[in-house]
Design goal:
The chain is of the alpha+beta class. The protein has one domain (3-117). It is built from three helices and five strands; from the N terminus they run E-E-H-E-H-E-E-H. A five-stranded mixed beta sheet has the order 3-1-2-4-5. Strand 4 (102-104) and strand 5 form a beta hairpin.
């Protein structure tokens, strides 16, 4: 069975985008230079059988490079996924109660900080793909039982 994944990346309120791109301008209430993260759900699927976290990170990066909303966001995307040896908080460096706000690639806020991302009550669903399209009804694989997140 192939499943959908989600990816997250750290950015600033002035990320490097191509001329004419306005993605960062849609982020509400961020001062210039403020850090934040983008998140999207992949429109592509893959099997969840790998035990190597880098396989999932590579998959998310490969999908992001081709996305109409993500291809111009420079950086290293991380899959919001756990394996037997690496949990999602470690993989995405979203440990602790602090952190930065997280926005979908359409500019809608998902979480105020890292604690909010993992408290089971995010502000808005992570349901926008790398192409800026609202995904349908689907299961997003994280490999993360409640005790790991």
């Amino acid at each position: 069975m192939n499943l959908t994944l989600a990816g997250v990346i750290l950015g600033t309120s002035t990320p490097l985008l191509l001329a004419g791109e306005t993605l960062a301008a849609t982020l509400p209430n961020l001062a210039p230079g403020s850090q934040f993260r983008y998140v999207f759900v992949t429109s592509e699927t893959r099997d969840p059988s790998s035990t190597d976290i880098s396989d999932y990170n590579t998959f998310v990066n490969n999908v992001a490079v081709l996305g109409t909303e993500t291809s111009n966001i420079q950086g290293d995307w991380k899959a919001i996924v756990s394996t037997a040896t690496t949990n999602a908080k470690v993989n995405t460096n979203t440990l602790g109660d602090a952190g930065v706000p997280i926005f979908r690639v359409d500019g809608v806020k998902v979480a105020d900080d890292y604690s909010d991302l993992w408290d089971f009550s995010i502000d808005n669903p992570i349901n926008i793909t790398e192409n800026g399209v609202v995904g349908g009804t689907f299961f997003v694989y994280t490999g993360s039982p409640d005790i790991l997140v």
